[in-house]
Amino acid sequence: MHDLLKILLGFLPWILFGILAGPPLTRLEAALAVALAATLALGFNQLRKGYFLTWGSLLFFSVSLILVAFLKNLWVIEHMDLLARATLAAIAWGSIIAGRPFTLQYARESVPEALWQTPGFIHTSFFISIVWGIIFLLALGASLFRPHLDQLAGWLYPLLATGTMFLGIIFTQWYVHRVRRARQT
Fold this sequence. Notes:
The chain is mainly alpha-helical. It is built from ten helices and no strands.
């Protein structure tokens, strides 16, 4: 359960943003401010350690808050959903391309240091990060095709955009448990 809590805390600013954002503009501004505050409050230690997800979140929510609340940039306001999902995908895939999958940073918190450089540990972190990258691309695709999805079925967009994140959390917990069980046998 401890691993699941860490994953939830890592995504909590994004979850809060997703729940709070929406029309009118003041609601979007408030959602950005809450998400930024949550990133700073919950991710202080992770920022000091250079976590990709936390730094990406800080950058996204800071820049977005400036562009929305202070500069009233209409393009950013109209495309906020798309920009948020593209940012999450960029964080995941950027960390993979950089050779430091973002899930590796979280995994090190609950695994003995002796395992950090083992091929199995590194492979598991890459695999989980790739799954998250795919999930974020699915959510990004849902944002791109939202008008069409809404016409097909009103529940399809929320399922693809938000439900996939919860699927990712469940998958991560299941896969980590599976790998630990296999290592013990």
